[in-house]
Amino acid sequence: MNSMIITGGQIDLPFAKTILESQAWDLVISADLGLHFCLEAGVVPDVILGDFDSVEPKDLAYAQEHYPERLFRFPAEKDETDTELAVDCALRAGADRITILGGTGDRMDHVLGNVQMLKKALDAGAVCFLMDPHNRIRMIREDLTMNREAQFGDYVSLIPFTPEVEGLSLTGFVYEVEDLTLQSGTARGISNEIRDEEALISFQNGILLVIESRD
Fold first, then answer.
1. Which tens digit of pLDDT belongs to each residue from 187-207?
2. Over the chain, what HEC string results?
């Protein structure tokens, strides 16, 4: 199941529309302020959830009038962020691929919290992406083959999510390594580039953040 989550960070309207139109989505979830984008873009979410503390009253009133059966309101004082509630909802529905729009922005605490959602999805056996006009971010615990034509942007950065990523080898990149232990606390894996038609990230142990980015 291919799921889209639209949450309350910064959303570039033309970019988000392009992503929404680029493939079929089995489940679309609006989390809190993501509702405003959905109404602005003419997107009707399958699920509208959150504490709605950031939602304009007129947007919430519209959703309550037109889609009351899709609306799920949570208390503001809760353990989960609205984005986490949306990820949980997608996973319960059986999503094995999740894309999050609006998961980045000025609030670095929210950005880092949303990176944790990549780990939650990974643990549940799903692939999850954070996307904005400049970045596509995923988390992996096994080898990944990347195609140059399908990559997002020009640069590929690897950041260890675990204290160490052991046995890391990169082939098909401008900067290749073999059997490297990539440790947290360094910037060793930043701003590589794919050289060949296909590039391989392989490693023996650990968890990696893979960030494809463009200026």
1. 999 999 999 999 999 999 999
2. CEEEEECCCCCCHHHHHHHHHCCCCCEEEEECCHHHHHHHHCCCCCEEEECCCCCCHHHHHHHHHHCHHHEEECCCCCCCCHHHHHHHHHHHCCCCEEEEECCCCCCHHHHHHHHHHHHHHHHCCCEEEEEECCEEEEEECCCEEEEHHHCCCCEEEEEECCCEEEEEEEECECCCEEEEEEECCCCCCCCECECCCEEEEECCECCEEEEEECC
